[in-house]
Every structure is written in C-alpha cells, then in structure tokens.
Design a protein that fits this description.
Number of domains: 2
Radius of gyration: 23 Å
CATH topology of the largest domain: TIM Barrel
Strand order of the largest sheet: 2-3-4-5-6-8-9-10
Helix content: 10-25%
CATH superfamily of the largest domain: Glycosidases
CATH class of the largest domain: Alpha Beta
Largest sheet: 8 strands, parallel, barrel
Strand content: 25-35%
Amino acid sequence: MIFRVMYFLFAAILCMQSHAADPAPKTKPLFRDFIGINGHTVQFKPELYSQVCKVVRDYHPLEWDTGNETDYKLDFPFARNGVNWETVYGAWRKNGFFNDACIMFETVPADQWKSLAKDSFHYGERFATNFGPSSHLKLVDAVEIGNEPGKFTDEQYRIVFENMSKGFRQGDQKLKIATCNVNVSKSGDYHKSVDCLNGLQDFYDVLNIHSYALIEGWPTWKRSYPENPKLLTYTQDVDNLIAWRDGHVPDKEIWLTEFGWDSSTQPNHPEGDFAKWVGNNDLEQAQWLVRSFFLFAKRDVQKAFVFFFNDDDSPQFHGSSGLTRKFQPKPSFFAVSHLFRTLGDYRLNRVIRESQELGFLYEFAHELDASRFVLVAWLPSGTQASSQSQLDLAGHTLSKVERMPVSSEPAPLEDLTVTDQTVGFTVDENPLYFFLTR
C-alpha cells in the first residue's frame, strides 16, 4: 500500500456553509432516484437488488413480443414466447422499482421488418396502452427506443424512432421516452449520432448515453479508475452530450444507462478474442462504481445505471460486470447498497475539492432537513493509496464517520479522536462518509 502524508484543511470550508458556490441551474436528483441498475427480464431478482437501488433498466427484446413477424398482433401482457410481462414488471413494481424498459428493436434486422414505420408505431401504441403509467397495469415508467442499434442506418433509425415514439405518445402521454445510446460524434456500431435527432425534439424526453472508463481498446479492453485524467471518453463523452443538450434541447434530461467494470476470479481464456483481456479486482470494481456515482452526480445527469446486475464470472469484456456473481453479492453489491442507504435522501450540494494529490471532497444535503449534511472524501489515485488528513469541525457536530463497506458486515465506523474541534483521520480509495449537523 502506498502511504502519503497530506492534510485537508477544512476549517474554512465548514465556515463557508452559508456562502456555498453558485447553485447549479437545475435541482440535483436525490440519490434514491439517481442510482440505477441494468437487469434482464426473468433473470432479474427484484427482492435481492432492491437492496441496491429502486431504479431498474430492462433489456426488453422486441423479438420476444413479435417473433420475426414485426406486424404480429400483439397479445400483451404476454410476449409471443410466453413470458408474462405483468408478472415480470409487476414483481419489480411490488419491490418499489421505477421501471425503464429498453425496447431492443434491433434484434430484428431492418430488412426483415414488414414495415419499419407502421410496425414501430403499432408496437409503441400497444406497449404504452398496456404498460404505461396511465394504463390499468401501470408497470412501466419509461421506455428507450433501441439500445445500441448500430446495424440500422441513421435513416432507418429515424423511421423507427419517430414512429415508435408517436405510438408511445398516443398510447400514454405520461410515459417518458428516451433515445438509444447517443453520442456527439458520427454514428458507430454501438451508438447513434445526436444528428439523427435533428427536428425530432418533440418525440423524446431523455437523451441516453453509455460510457465506460476504457484506457485501452482491443485486445485488452483495459479500464482505469474513474478520475484518471488520461481517460479520454469516460466523463468527457457525457460532458459533450450535456453541452449539446444545453445548446439544442435544454429541456431534456440526460441518463447514463450503462457504466461499469468487469471483475472476474477466473484465469484468462488461453486463446480467442479475450486472451489478452485485462479485468479488475472486486475491490476496484466496488470503489470505482461508487466514486463514479459521485462524479456523475456532479454533472447534469438525472439517472445513472450500473452495468450489470449479475454475472457468471466470465473473464472477458462485459463478462463479469455484475454486482453479484452467480447471484452471490460481490464487494460492489455491499458498497452500492451502502451508498443507496446512506445518501438516498440526499442530493449533491456542492463540490468542495477535486485534487489528484489531496483528494476529492463532495458535500451532500438532506432532502428535508437543511441542518443535516454528509461530506464524502476519497483519494482518486487507483493505486490503493492512503493519506493522513484533518477536519476542523468549526462548531459543527460530527455524529459518526463511516468507511465504504465491501462485505456484509456493517459499514466500518472510524474510531476518531476529536481534539479542540479537530478530527484526524486516514483517507484512502474507499470513500469516507462524515455525518454532520450545522
């Protein structure tokens, strides 16, 4: 472990609570509405993952509902393959989830559709009428028109997007509509350019983006820690989309619907596409997911969804991204669950410090009680470094200090000694939560 001696001088910080930085132009979401997870249909276990969050995104294959006949007369709540969506989404709703269904129309190639426009509209109208917030079932709150439909041309995507959106709107005006994964760049295999949306601002409510902290591409697919300044596309892609949104459609929300890290316990495949794949360990996955939630909460992002809910411990790209491994909680499960319990009723109030050397310090304010706030401190090196630091309470009351847990044991309480209103502590890569009252 790398050990460095540094000092956070917080006295001035706490004295300035009534003179916070300029407020953000939009209200930050509460963490209970911000933290999301990617699930998948009948495999998702709502009782288990309700410990982690109350927002879930489903990969909903259109092909399950229609088969290869895109003009199939839909029989909702049943999919054509026999799945009962009332049972699936009903169990999620029973456990308190906000349900976002990503309609993966791209599972049926464009040249196999009977009519891209007509069938898209029909599907959207039927889906919204049966499952939307105004329907008798009230099971789905939001829909995404495609996940990563890179095999559809931009023109084909516009046809599906516009017509399916019209169907959703006709079926249920209250159903929130999101785009597929979009980016401020040319369209690619896994995303569409925002240029595809020109003139369609009335057809969606949310811009949707995926982002991964890749420091290298093929053949290693190596990912780094989220604050790494050498990352070129992690938070930057999100910032670019926010800037585009602000300049073109300022009333739209932005959701980060995929981010995450792989952590497998298995040796690499001896050959094949992933023979040189580089994963991360379980501790890194836990630390970097939680710290990413902080980084994206700082931005004008309304929801952020971890990829993925579960994995089978496969040593390959996207093969071990779950919060659970074969449905057994990994350290990341406990870390994100603690984040959800701890900050669920809080929203980001301000960023106090962001320093690669001295660490990051964010302040979170309680939803209803202005006297309660939480400071979160961590080091961003990605090397499991630690530092000696100080906090001057400046008349504030410190009720407890918890370090991010990575097991089923309760969050470790820091046994700190307060001397003349000064608290000495060790800050490291596991976020440290200070619970204070003014």
